[in-house]
Amino acid sequence: MNKKDKIAEVTFSLALKCGFDNVSLNQIEDTGNVTTGAIYYHFKDKNDILKYIVEMYILKEIENFKKILKNYKGTPLEKLRFTFYYHVGLNIGDHSDILELSDKTNVDYKQHHLLLTSVYYQHQELRNLFHNMNLEIFKFYKELIEESIEKKEIRSDINSEDLAIYLFTIFKGFIELSTVFPKFTLKKFIETNLELIFENIKK
Amino acid sequence: MNKKDKIAEVTFSLALKCGFDNVSLNQIEDTGNVTTGAIYYHFKDKNDILKYIVEMYILKEIENFKKILKNYKGTPLEKLRFTFYYHVGLNIGDHSDILELSDKTNVDYKQHHLLLTSVYYQHQELRNLFHNMNLEIFKFYKELIEESIEKKEIRSDINSEDLAIYLFTIFKGFIELSTVFPKFTLKKFIETNLELIFENIKK
DNA sequence: GTCTATAAAATGATAGAC
DNA sequence: GTCTATCATTTTATAGAC
């Protein structure tokens, strides 16, 4: 791995623990065995590292996932279940040659979600990147629904945009809920919601 | 308002904009016309202000809301709609004599949600307070459902705990979604979801 | 209880050698 | 491209007067 990605990787890894703004250059230098000089050669300033991380580690995710889902065979509900589980598994790296996280197994979806939310909050200059990402996810759900309607796998008397909103809401909801509400397991959240979603979309 | 609450209020107001950790004591002093001396007389350290804010401004919310909903007459769906709209309206102050926000109208539910999430993320010492809050909300939904089943207003062949998870998920989901996804209005998110919820709970 | 002055540490960033 | 040394600011927090 080149130095630039090394810096990004170690910063990402540190940021996951307590937020990007709470990671100091000193920490990055000590943990990653890099020096101030290297950092400021590759990046304009500290926030430039964040921008690079967001673009490299986060925004590529959906494109990758779409490719993966293309090869996945199953009913709409199975595809949805796969989607939900895939995203909380955060299989970064397993299917991607862009990302080179050396510690792939340790990316926790809760920390990942919290980091994204905090970055969105505290770095308004990056918000458009997130808006575009969410638009992509929305389109993904809508296409999944329209395809299923075409194949007559689910009921057709319902607006695909509304259903996409509904699915997206539940997706965001159980991630958020399982993050800040440890009473139940993630599996419980996903399966309970899938069951009620199914009641709504079956023919 | 006494000095302690003045400090808390101005800190809360500043924190809403870009996160608690990004507010400096200097900012608090300048904005609130208070001095270092006053701050450290009333609070142990900076994080002690946050703890006070969380306890005063956030955790009391549910208790207040429960009281309000008791006086609200309507069907379960109407109660749910009221709940959803109430919480994004964040009617802090309108019904509470505990809170004394001088700038009540400016509390934006998106900023409020982002602040809570960031605080949860970056201040692990406060997580238990949030867990308890979420448990209270969960119990609220569960009781609403059980009451509705008893009154035979909704279908009874469904587990009240599962339905509570479902409602809570959607609540968390549309808050999160409308915060980071400006394509649609909040009203669109709420109404679309309510419609599909209704399909699930009607007799 | 509230003030000012100041300490002590940490932070992001730059300069210049190699 | 990478290093070390250092600057300039800002930060939280304390001390002591009133």
UniProtKB/TrEMBL annotation, chains A, B:
DNA-binding listed as a keyword: yes
Q: Name one Pfam family in it.
A: TetR_N
Q: Show the stretches that span the lipid bilayer.
A: none
GO MF, one example: DNA binding
- Domain HTH tetR-type as annotated: residue spans: 1-61
User: Which keywords describe this protein according to UniProt?
Assistant: DNA-binding
Organism equals bioreactor metagenome
Name the coiled-coil region(s).
Answer: none
Family matches, as InterPro entries: DNA-bd_HTH_TetR-type_CS, Homeodomain-like_sf, HTH-type_Tx_Regulator, HTH_TetR, Tet_transcr_reg_TetR-rel_C_sf
Q: What is this protein called?
A: HTH tetR-type domain-containing protein
